[in-house]
Design brief:
This protein has 136 residues and is mostly helical. 71% of the residues lie in helices and 7% in strands.
């Protein structure tokens, strides 16, 4: 690796300006025939970009796992919801049956009370008729 400076490098190139002092790789014949030249910090930038790509790929994999877990959770919640809907439907049927039984029992009780009341009235009528028959 060669380094530029105010003094001349091996290939007799004097560097002035913003790249002065910047480290680079180059062939000793890079000005004449080879043409190989690379800034030293480019290698670090490539490594940094590779690391960023690795981090991105890792995050994508983590998110794909999270998506799969969430899809499974949604599937489980849908199944639980269907079961709850079935349970509610069954409860509605049971409640309707119980309401019918209560209504029937209430009607039966009303009929029983009506029957008792009619017997009571019949007894009163008989008593009154019996008293009138004795008076005559």
């Amino acid at each position: 690796m060669a380094s530029s400076s105010e003094s001349r490098s091996r290939s007799n190139v004097k560097v002035q300006g913003p790249t002065r002092g910047k480290r680079f790789y180059g062939c000793s014949h890079w000005l004449n025939s080879c043409g190989f030249f690379k800034w030293a910090d480019e290698e670090y930038r490539v490594q940094e970009l590779q690391f960023l790509l690795f981090e991105r790929d890792t995050r994508i994999a983590e998110l794909e796992i999270l998506i799969e877990e969430l899809e499974n959770e949604v599937k489980n919640l849908k199944q639980a919801n269907w079961k709850l809907e079935d349970d509610v439907a069954e409860m509605a049927i049971e409640n309707a049956e119980q309401l019918a039984m209560i209504s029937s029992a209430t009607a039966d009780k009303k009929l029983y009370n009506l029957l008792v009341a009619s017997w009571f009235l019949f007894a009163i009528v008989l008593l009154l008729l019996g008293r009138e028959g004795r008076k005559e």
